[in-house]
Structures are given as C-alpha cells and as structure tokens.
Amino acid sequence: MELISGNEAIARGAWEAGAGIGVAYPGTPSTETMEAFSKLPGVYAEWCPNEKVAVEVGLGASAAGKRVLATMKHVGVNVAADPLFTAAYTGVGGGFVILAADDPGMHSSQNEQDSRYYAAAAHIPMLDPADSGEALAYTKAAFDVSERFDIPVFIRSTVRVSHTKCAVEVGNRCERERIPYEKNQPKWIMMPLYAKPRRLDLDRRIEALRAYAEECPFNRIERKNDAIGVICTGATYQHVVEALPDASVFKLGMSWPLPARALADFAESVERVYVVEEASTYLSDQVKSLGIALDEPLRPLSAAGELTPAAIAIAFGADEAAHAVAPQDIPPRPPALCPGCPHRLVFRELARMKAIVTGDIGCYTLGALAPLSAVDTCVDMGASISMAHGFELGLEGEEHRPVVAVIGDSTFAHSGITSLLNTVYNCGTGTVCILDNRTTAMTGHQGNPVNGITLQNRPSRELDLPMLVRALGVEDVRTVDPMDMKAVRKALKETTSSDALSVIVFESPCVLLNKERKAPYEVKSDCRACSTCSLIGCPAISCDSETRVASIDASLCVGCSQCSQACPYGCIVSTGGSHA
Q: In whole angstroms, what is the distance from residue 82 CA to residue 74 CA?
C-alpha cells in the first residue's frame, strides 16, 4: 500500500500498463501527473510547448506502436481539440490515454469547464475515477480499452481527485512489446478520400463501445433502499454517499458513452431518481436524452462551483442547522506577487503611466490586483498579444492611452509566438512585454523552451527570445533588467511613445529559484509617510493605518531593493546584515 494522490495514481497506472512515453504541458490540477510519471523507471517524458503539440507527439508515438500518456488541465483540452477530434477517426497503434483534469470551483483557472462534453463531441470514451485507487485502476484499464476499440481514451479527474491522497495497492509493471508499425494510409491520412470511410468505421467502434458500457466493471450500483436513487460520477460520488447514506447509487465509472439499458433499469427500480453533479448539466442532459425522467431535489443545487456533502444533504431536505457550513464573514486573503518578484516594477510602471494592459495566464496575472491594479484583460494563453493588436485596431483614429501586452516566457512559447507573428504580419503597433523569469513559475517551476530545461533534465538548449522575435520581423527589440526601476521606466516610456511595434524582454529569474536572500531592507526613522512604497504591493511592506509610516517585515524581505528604488525620499535602506 502507498499513500498517493490521484495524479500520482494516474501516472502509476500508466506505468503499470506498460506506457513508455509521456507528453504534457503543465497546468493545475494536472501538473504532478507527468512529473510523477517522469520519475518512474524505463519511461521517456517531456514537457511540450503546448497541449496541441503534446497530443500530436503522443499520437505519433502511438502510431509507432508505443503506449502513451498525455496530460493536461481542462482548458488545455481546448488547445488540443484539433488533433483530438481527428484522433478519434484515425484510432491508435499503441494505447493512447489522455488525462483531462477539470477544475470546478476555479481554484487555479479562468473558467469552469466539463471535459465530458469533449468526450461526447469527439466520440472519445471517458473514464471518471472517484479516488486514487480508481484512478490507478481506470488508467491501467484504459490502455486495454484504447487498443481493443482502436481509439484514444480520456481519463477525467477533478481537483479533489487529482490532489487528494488515498492508500492504494500498487502493482508491478507489465512490459509491453511495441506494436510493429505498418504503413496504412487509409487509417492515418485524414484527407476526405480516407476520412469518410474512417468516419463510418468510427460509428461502428462507438456502437461497440456502447455495448461495452453496459458491462463495464467501473459502472456499478450500490443498492440501499428503493425510495431514492442517485446517478453520479467522479468525486461527486464521495459527497453523495456521505450526504445520502440511505440512497441507492448508480456510480458511473465510464461517463461517455453511458450504459443506456442499465441506467433505465436503475431508474425503474427506485421511486425517485436524481442526478447529482457539480458545475455542469452534462450528466443530467445525457441521462434525459436516454428518455429517463429525473426528479429534482427539494432545493436546487448550485449551478457553479464544487459541491459539498452539506450542500447535497440540505438540497435533499436535511436541516441546514445540522450541517456545518463554512462561515461567510472570513476576511479575504488575496494572493500577491512574492517579495522580490521581478514582475513587480514592470506592473508598477504600467499602472503609473495608466497604460491599457492586456494580460495573460501566469503569475503575472496577479498584477491585476490592488495596489498594482495594472492589468485590464486576461482571457487565455497567448491572448495578451492578440488582444493588444485588437485594442489598437479598435482605438485607431482616436487619441488613447498606451496599449501594452504582457506575457510570460512559457506562455509566449505556448501560444504567444503566433499571436506576435499575426501582429507583425498585419503591420500592428504597440508594445509587447515578455516577462522572462526563466521558468514556468505558477505551476511549480517546470522547464520550458525558453530556459531549455527538459522534464527529465536531458541535454537541451535555451530559446533565444530576442533572436526569435527579430526573426518574426520586430525591429525594436530590447532586453531590460526588470529589477532596475529606471531602466524599466525608460524602456516603457520610449517604446510606448513610438509608432512602431516594440518588444521588451524583461529577463530576471523567479525569486523562488534562488534560495539565498540578500540583507533585508528597513525604513529609516525619518519616513515621510508618503506611502509610495506600498504601491508596489510587496507583502513585506505595511503602513500604519493612522500615521501612514511604513515598516518592513524582515522575515519576508528578500533584499531585492525594489522598495528602496521606489521611495522618492531615500528613506528605505539596506540593513547590511542577513536574515536570521
């Protein structure tokens, strides 16, 4: 027995099934899966620039006969959708399993999204584990299902499955011989001549999958009484059995396709039948489409966010006072850029110059929060540059504030390159800031093409950002130290005053990459109480609520000197000492 998370269990299940190749782009709550897989013996694993590339690499390895695991978060499935839909047509060589990790409650995401809709739309079967033990078993079985039905298979997790640890019985690896590759144009070349018959073949495979769903061992009924029957999947199952201990439960381990006959029989066997699910109506809609009439709880369940056992029990008539509900009056604790973050002065200067700032996905999204309040938009990976170009088009002919796109190094490699190419190609203007902190910081400091560090630390090379940007056609390209406030201010002032397209590469490593901290700073006794230092938003700085005199928490200060540079009166100085 080992105590492992759902993510680790998925990695272990793939390894036990004989998967030899893993491909991914990091994204919470999926990130640890590929990190865990990469540490297992006898495997090759890599971070790819984005999820589309990961699926394409994985499909190629599958075509060559290897078993392959690809992992991504739910919004990454959007990026990978192009090859995924066609991969259902081509089918597989070696088993190909894709983790789609959903994030109900949006703990680390810009939207709530139910990946089961992708399974139905792309005609790719999906298994939906409820805990780490099932995550291992389902993943291991998914490779057999993939090869049996000649189709990729989704494993869906949610944040609770991905990050909760359970005691799991682990097994040994089943070594698999590579399936020999043989040229087969009708299977692998999806031009109309071959795609049309493969579409018909997909229909046949789907019918076989529907028959398999009726006997799938991961779909099970837990019979209690006949008054209430609940249909559920995944982590929601755990909440249902806790909230409704007397209800009969149809736990779906395969959430697409559904076992139509078994569900109809279950509905007939109980007086009232319900679907309980979170942040989606996928399952309710699918069950209703089978002709099964569903009952509604006494109180409606929330259409957004995660469910809890208390919320389910109350919806089914339990006394609200008998269930502990999280207090609503707890003061919020908003996230903040770390002390010494190299992004801070860039955002401070952008806020000071009142620029329109189109942001992107990463740590630097926190530049939107007070007191920096610098970011105007954040939609998806790579959108900063595309939206900045759109702003320039929309405001053309009007006098307007400077438009500045801000994007990180990993995100630029993921989706920003084509956005910048579009701006260059269409003769766009404006300023693009690439915040190169030498890592993929927000998901836990993974390597990326810009820093040249691979998942398994194989020899590689760094992407030369300035050279690449110039190759795309940008003439005004600058590399600036973001820890130097005067240099930041000068670069932003010059580029935003120009009619040309400019790119500034702000290069400085994430402060968490270097564990050695410099001597902390302190506020001198002659502080003018101007509060300017507080505007950079460093967690180490606070101002007295009455006197407005500043102070610095030496236990948080990393000695970066940003506050000292920001102070107009020279009242912040280094202690010259060291941290305790």
A: 14
Find tokens 């202690």 and name the residue.
575
Report the b/e string of 199-225 with b at 16+ CB within 10 A: eeebeebbeebbebbeebebbebeebe
* Both structure tokens of 112: 């709530």
Hunting for tokens 């075509």 — which residue is that? Answer: 63
Between CA 501 and CA 359 the distance in angstroms is: 17
- Across 348-421, where does the E strand assignment appear? 356-358, 403-408
Secondary structure (3-state) at 267? helix
Q: Which two tokens stand for residue 353?
A: 């110059």
Q: What is the DSSP letter of 360?
A: -
Structure tokens at 214: 């009726």
What is the reported pLDDT for 331?
Answer: 80
What 59-64 contacts at long range (C-beta under 8 Å, 24+ apart), as own/partner pairs, is 59/83, 59/87, 59/90, 59/92, 59/96, 59/152, 61/21, 61/23, 61/94, 62/92, 62/93, 62/94, 62/95, 62/96, 62/152, 63/90, 63/92, 63/93, 63/181, 63/188, 64/93, 64/94, 64/178, 64/181
pLDDT in tens, 524-566: 999 999 999 999 999 999 999 999 999 999 999 999 999 999 9
Q: Looking at residue 580, what is its pLDDT?
A: 35
The model's pLDDT over 257-285, given as tens digits with 9 standing for 90+, comes to 999 999 999 999 999 999 999 999 999 99
Predicted TM-score (pTM) of this structure: 0.95
pLDDT under 50 in the chain at which residues?
577-580
**How far are the Cα atoms of 66, 67, 139 from residue 178, in angstroms, in the given order?**
5, 8, 19
